[in-house]
Request: fold
Amino acid sequence: MPRIAYVNGRYVAHADAFVHIEDRGYQFADGVYEVCEVARGFIVDMPRHLGRLNRSLTELSIDWPVTRGVLPIILREVVRRNHVTDGLVYLQVTRGVASRDFVFPAGTKPSLVVTARKADPAAAAKRAEGGIKVLTVPENRWDRVDIKSVGLLPNVLAKQKAKEAGAQEAWFIDADGTVKEGGSSNAWIITRDGVLVTRPAEHGILRGITRTTLFEVAAKLGLKIEERGFSVAEAKAAREVFISSATTIAMPVVAIDGAPVANGHPGSITLSLRQAFFDVAEKSPA
Ligand SMILES: Cc1ncc(COP(=O)(O)O)c(C=O)c1O
Reply:
């Protein structure tokens, strides 16, 4: 079954899906993206993802590449054409193609690319049963990580370092020793009293859509959340630790820098959050 991508108004074979060498995404990382989970035939939390896309575009003064009403149709079509029931749909908007110059080009149309990929929910469930390991790295990213920009080189390097250390995620640590977020996820702990703790998202981290929906999941389960910073030491001593993102939902963390978290097994509260997530999340039929 050939994969299909959407590129600037056309549905094309994935193998023939190209953007121009002078696309500003390629030259300057001058673009933004979103990733939505596809689960059981639904696109999860699509309105929230498109709301955050709007914010990212506005912050960078990039126009919408298509109208806001048309983008969900394209996302659904790419999911449908790729027969994705479980997996993800990825969209990327860049400032467009223009002769290489740092300043914004005049009259350039933004580029839009949409792809979709299948994933195996059984494999994800198995990963959650075992939990993942995290490696901490010093924060070295720019100040506007609240924008979901395609400029992800520090994240690439951090996650590669984590992989080489046998871990599956890297955590960026602030100069004051507090945990910011993962290379592609938000960071959470659960205290001995069963309170969920995650860093405020006003600045310094990406306001994860999964993070936002988990606030609602926690409320449904009667769990308290505190939005505050926490240190690596507090995380290592926590009852449970987990990360959140559209592709991992709530994923237990069982070790930080080689030291086991709690008893080294996924925690039950994290697993119950993970279990309840789909019922609470907004589901748009694909
Ligand atoms: C740096 C970073 N933080 C947090 C997240 C989690 O965001 P979301 O829950 O919207 O996937 C991501 C997702 O890719 C990310 O790249």
Notes: The two ends are 19 Å apart (CA to CA). Residues 139 and 172 are 5 Å apart (CA to CA).
